[in-house]
Each structure stands twice: as C-alpha cells, then as structure tokens.
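pasting Regulatory protein, luxR family for the record, 853 residues
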Amino acid sequence: MLSSTSARLLLDEVKSEPRSRLLVGVSGVGGAGKSTLLDQLEGHYRAAGVDVVRGPSGAHPRALNGRGTVLVDDAHKLNDSALTELHSVVEQRDLNLIVAYRSWPQPPALLRLARTLERYHPSVVLGPLDREAVTMALAAAMGTPPQPALVTQVVQLTAGMPWLVDRIAGTLTDSVSTLDLCPVMDQIGYDLDRINPEVRELLLTLSVGFDLSGQIPETLGQRSDEGVDALIAEARAAGLILPDGRQIPLIEKTVLHATPLYRIRNLQRSLVTSYPVDRGVLTETARALARSGLKDDRVAESLRQAGDAVLTTQPSLASALYGEALDAGADELAIAARRAQAAAATGDLEVATGLLDKLFAHESPPDLTRASDVAAAVWAQRGMLVRSAEVYRWLGTERAGCSAALAGVAMIGVGDTDGAEGMFSVGDCDGSRSLSTVAVQLIGQGIRDSITPAADDALPSLTRASDVMSASGAVIPLPDYPAALAALVALHSGELSIADSILDAALERGQCGSVARPRLLLLRAWTAMQADRPERARAAIADATQAGGGLVQRDELLLRAIEVGLARRADDVPALVLAWQRARENILHAGVDLYSLMPFEELVVAAARLRESGRLQSHLAQAWDLLTRLGEPPLWSVRLHWSAVQAAILTERPSDLAPHAAALVRAAQHSHLAFVLAAAGRAWMSVLAQSFEVTAVETAARGLASVGLTWDGSRLAGHAAARTEERKDMARLLACARDLHPGTAAAAPSAPAEVKAATRAPVGGIRDDTGLSAREREIARLVLEGKTYREIGETVFISPRTAEHHIARIRSRLGASNRSELLTLLRVALEGPDVHGEWREAEQPEQTAYMRR
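structre below
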C-alpha cells in the first residue's frame, strides 16, 4: 500500500510515459513501502518492454543492452565504490535510475548521489499511511470493508507505520471487529529481537517514560550525546519511533510486554528520580507510571498536586488524577474529601456520598472543612437543606473558616437566624481574596440582606456574586449557585427581566460548570413561564433534561412545578392533572426551605384548583413556620401569600383569605411587589363582589403583569369582563386580557352570557363542556361515589358490561390513562369551583374589610 501522493504520482508518470528518462531518489523509514514501490515500478517497465535490473548488488548498468532501468533498493547499505558506479549511470542518457534508501545511515557517497538525483526529479518520501490508506490495507487483507472503529484502533496503535499495519492486517479475518494484539506483539517482538541491542534498549527507555530531554537512564549513560543521537536516528530510520522521536504505541506495548517486570519497575523508579526536586509534578509521565501499576509515593504526591491544581476548574480531570494517585499508593483517607468534591462537581452525588460516609466514620477525618462543604452542597441538591445546616452546626464556627458564609446561607435557608449570625461573625476568611472566596462572601451578604424588611441590597450583592463567580471559572461546593440565588431574589421581587439577564449571563459563561446548568436552565424556564413565553420555557426544560443523567431532587421539584404552571396557564386540564400527579410524588422527596418556596407558590394554586390542597398542608405549614422564624421577610413571603389568596378564591374559603390579604397590606410598606399584589387583591374582591371600577381593575391587571404575573393579570381582567353589563367595559377588559395573555379571552362577544362562556376556561381553568352526554355525566357521578359496575348498572338500569363500556368511553374522552387520573378529571369536570358564581354577602365579611383597606 503506497503511503504518499508523490509515490502514486511517480507510478502514474512511469505508467503513462515508460520510455521517458527518469532519475529519482526514494527515501523512507524501514517498512515504509520502498520495496513495494520498486516492485510496482518494475512491473510497469517490464509491461512496456523496458529492460530492468534490480539491486542493491548486481545492479550494474552494463547488464543492460541499450535503453533500460536500474532499480536499487537499500542503497544505504552499499559501499562507496558501488555508490560511485551508480553515480555514473546519471551520465548515461539511455538509462533510468531509481534509488531507494533510508534516511540513516547516509554515507557521503549516498548523500552526493541523492543530491544529484534531486536535480532531475524531486525525491519521493514515503511516510506513515493516512486513514484512507489504512482502510484500504485492512480491506485488502480481510476481503471486506473494516469497521470504522477497527480502523481507528489500528491508526492509533501503529501511527500509520506501514510495516505495523501489515503485521496487524496479517492476523485479521472478515469476521474481526476488535483486535487481539497478542499474536501481533509476538510477531513484532520477534522482529525486535533481531535489531541492534542498543536500539532495543533505547526503545525500552522510551516505553518506560523517558523522553531523553532530561537525564538519561544508566542503561544509556555510557554513551555520549552524539551516541544517543545516533541510536535515535537509527531507530527512526528503522521505523521504530516516530519522526519527532515519540514512541509508537504498538511498539511501546510490545516492548513492555516482552520485558521482565523487575526491569520495568527499576527503570520507572530511575525515571522518577531523574526529575529535579524543583520541577514539580510529573503530569502525564506520572499518570502513565500510575496506570502501569507503579507504586511510588513521589508519583502519588505528584498526581495529588496535579489534581489539586485543576479541582475547581476541571473536576472530571481532577477525579481521574486522584484515582491514579490512589493507584500509585496515595493515602485514601487523605484525598477522600478532594475526591468527593470532584465527584459532586461532576454531578455524581452517589460517589461523593459514599466517599464522605467513609471519611466521616473516622474519629479525626482530615480536610474536614472541605468535606463539610461538599456534604452540605450534596444535601442541598437532594432537597434537604436542613441537613446542610446540621453539617455546619457540627463543624462549628471555630473550624468553618472560609466556609462560614456558606454555613450562614444554609442556616438562613432553614430559618436558623441565630446560627447564621454566629457564622457571619467569623470574619474575613483569613484575608483570602480569591475570586471564588469573594463571591462566597457576597452570597452570604446578599442572603443576609434578603431577610431584612426592605431587602434593597440583596439583589445587587447577589448579582455581583454571580458576576464574580462566573469570572473565577471555579466549580466549588455551594448550597446554591450565585446566579440561581440572584434569580430567585429577582423573581421574588417581580424583576423578571433582571432574573432573565442574570441567568443568561451565567449560562453563557458556564458558571459553576455543567453541574449547575440544569438548575439555571430550569430557572430560565420559570422566568419564561412567568413572562408568558411558554415556548421559551419548554425549550429551556428540554435543554435542562437532555443530558439524560436525571435531575437532583431539588431541581426535579422545580421542573414539576413548571410543568404544572404551564398546563394551568394553557388551560389544559388533562395535562394539569398529570403534571400535578408527578409533582405530588416529587414533593415527598424534597423538604421545604427558603430557596425552594417558589415551586410551592405554583403548586398551592394548582392543588386548590384540583381540590387536593390537603396534600400540601404539611409542607405549607413548614413554609409558614420557616417564614415566621425568619420574621416574615417581605421579599420571600409576599409571593406565597399571593398564592394563598388565589387558592382561597378558587376553593371559595373566605376565612382562609383574610390573613394573607392583611400580610400583603403590611408588606406593602417595604415591598413594591407587595404593594402591587395588595392593589390586585382589592381589585379581585371588588370583582367578586360585583362592585368594581373598570379602570381600577385594568390598572391592577397591568400591575400584576409588570411584576411577572402576566397570566394572573389576564385572569383578573377576563374575570371582570364576565361580570360587567356594559359592552364597552366588557370589550375594554377583554382587550386588556388578550393584551396581557393572548388567547385567554375570545373576541368581544355580543352578549354578557357569551362573555362568560368565552372567559370561563381561562379564568377558572375549567371547561363547562366536558364533552360527555347526559347519560355519561350520570354514570360519571356514580363513579365518583365509588360504585362498582354492578351497582352503577342497578342504579341506571343497564348491565354491568354496558356500564363498563360507558366508563371506558368517558375515560377516553377525558384523556385519563388510569383510574386515579379518571377520578381527578371527573372531580374537576363535575365538581369544580364556580369562581363566577355570586358570593353571598354573609360569606364575605373578611373580603369586604380587605377591599376597604
């Protein structure tokens, strides 16, 4: 197989014009295909009737009568007289001369001949085979096209050296998909046994890891630099090392395979010793030594240092380096916390947890602060921030160091303000001013400010923390990511555009690595949902879940809440039921903390709509208790109060609404969002009481949209449109609803009754028309009562089989996939709250009082 374009061009030249005079040199390493090229040239000449003599010995021009071609192989082996005689052929005009030789040795006579030939024709240099040539060589040997993976493996092993490719090809059959290297190495080992012993020693030196750029091993120490250079030139010319002096992988494997282990280990230790003390880590050399099985403390320490250097920027690489350090004999306990940090930073929480469990089982575990940070971060991702706070309480202020701010963030997240203040009092982290440390301090400052009544400084601090963390490029263990916390504060403040901007910047700069990306994307989806951009939300969800590794429990709950919110805003009852069922299960896996309140703000409204509020009772009680312990911070509590107001409206429970309405009014003194929500609450009450001003309702609706509650504002306007008798007011409110949430309200109808029909679905989210016949509705109510097929049949005078048929059709029409979904959908369809009905005056004293505030 020809390895170069110049060789193929030479063959084409001879084939097309065999009688044109040709003087050319062919150079290449051993096994590069020089002899093969001469064989093919000889065939072309003889086919054209041109006489040929073949060397290296006996290739005398006088053996030819008239025009002919002299082909000389291995010219580097000829003596000076033979080379001088070949030189004379150049002067004979009726003879062609093609001389093949290696690059070493090159005696002066050969050099003169090569230079003379170059004046007549550029030299043909044969080098390694490219991928296409390797594929063709393997196909010729196998009789069938090889698999691409096999070609890749052969190219990597041989570096394209033709003689090695030939050795592998000789062992292949048409059924081979992977290589068995044992017979190949046996054959190559036989070849290597016949080469110069000193070259073989050089190959062993390179295979062990010496690159000859520093000290040379004792086995080569008797040679001068010139002597070593000569050995390298000989090995290169023989095709045993690459032109740049690097080892060929298959040669390396063969040499190590054929060398006694004790010799390899002695050389490896000599290699480690040859590195100066001040040279630092051995890097790739140390990795190769560890992978080969060498146990050496110096190698282990070098790999540990290399892992430390990339731990916060390339955790996957750090994890591999620590694993190799263990292979080289590193103390498993000493690097356990580092390995756990690397595992957690790549999303492998199970490995991180396993390492930490073993570490904490010791009485005096090393690297304790790092281990605590990792443990706290893992617990937070699992949705159990309360455990994170417990880890930091156990660590204590004396050992917290630079992690004190993180401890304070975790403790505030679970309502422990006293513990948080103790951690924040630790101080300035021993003066450390790295970017990631500054970011951590800003996180602590921002979260601390967020629970104050005004909380004006919280968002600026967290935004700066996000910027600094992104600039650091670091991936460190955190209770939550700076961009996520900044976005949460922005969303709880009604600043959707700011939240979106923070998240976009963090995602673009890869803040906290790939492990943070799903959470940041889900927060982007939440922001898009609030901004009434469902397609952007779904795209962000797809990006967050496409990795296939699954989400952590904290983020899984957020995802399910987004799915619920999207279904509720689209008025897709079957999708809402399915999303709620998935969310209901995820709620069991995650606890309640300050940074996970947002999903519950959506779920509490959906639960009220589906008559399943009881399933959230325990979690909501924990949420209110948490907020109470934090002093009811307006920034974190206002949105949940608003959700509770919406839930009270949906469930027609006036007594549940009053305390939340009062809380919004109190918070309005410090919070713009609370001010807007309080005004919206008054507008809602006036609409429900059928005593409202269109301008006030429209202002309240647009105010809701301005703080990220676009759908809520549209719902308010649509609801009011259904309760006004004035056509122009109706059209104005419907236009407002359509403007805020396109598709919420239909075009202005011709009568108030039609307005109610058009707005009923978006306002309450429940369709009047379930698509069921009167008989199916009757049977559906009996299903809700828990009756069996037989009991239903006896009640409506049909057979049990007919009852089963009716229920199957009901299930199909409602899109229920199982009995649980069917019962939920039937409750929504037949027992849903009538938010348009008249509220009796006796039922709304609290609402009336709130409306008057």
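Residues 744-769, 832-853 have pLDDT under 50 and may be disordered.
The first strand starts at residue 23 and ends at 28.
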